[in-house]
Amino acid sequence: MQLICPIQYTVYIVRFDLGRLGITSKVVISAWQLRDLITTSNFGVLMIIRMARVHWRAELAAEAETLFSEGAIPILSRQIGFIRAQLLGAENETLRIALTAWENEICYEKFVSSEDMQTITKMFQAMYVDGALPIGTQFHVLRDSQK
Asked: Distance between CA 50 and CA 56 in Å, rounded?
């Protein structure tokens, strides 16, 4: 973010340069909006959490967990805007929840429409109970304990 020029002490023109995404934008905001922008994570862009629910075949659970760590996470880690991935599950249950966190919706949408997303989905295909694909839901982070 680069402050270009103050106007009347309360309004600022701010240029955002999200170079990795190839986006440059100018906006006019007030001083209080600038303060909020600077103190908000990701400069006011809401973080996205994707939760994918899937049932894995019980006999392949250990293999699927290894594949998540050694196959999916390396692919995710090279994505622009990727923050973190977690795999959740209860012992002796087939339900697994894969959580991924993204810097913003633009990065998330770019990944979802990528070939890498299809690669990860196909990677686990033999492990899905009855071939049922994961059910994904996206959430904006509205509040965060870190702020």
From this structure: 18
Give the domains, in start order, of the chain with CATH numbers.
Answer: 2-39 (no CATH), 48-140 (3.30.70.100)
Question: How many Å separate Cα 36 from the centre of its chain?
Answer: 22
- The CA distances from residue 49 to 10, 21, 99, 142, in Å, are 34, 19, 7, 11
Cα 95 to Cα 82: distance, rounded to the nearest angstrom: 24
Q: How far apart are CA 129 and CA 97, in angstroms?
A: 14
Whole-structure pTM value = 0.66
Q: By the 8 A CB rule, do 107 and 80 touch? A: yes
- Phi first, then psi: give them for residue 65, nearest 5 degrees: -65, -40
| Span 122-132, pLDDT tens digits | 999 998 888 88
Write out the DSSP string of 50-88.
EEEEEEBPGGGHHHHHHHIIIIIHHHHHTSTTEEEEEEE
pLDDT tens sequence across 14-51: 444 444 454 444 444 444 444 444 444 444 446 889 99
> Would you give the DSSP letter of residue 77?
H
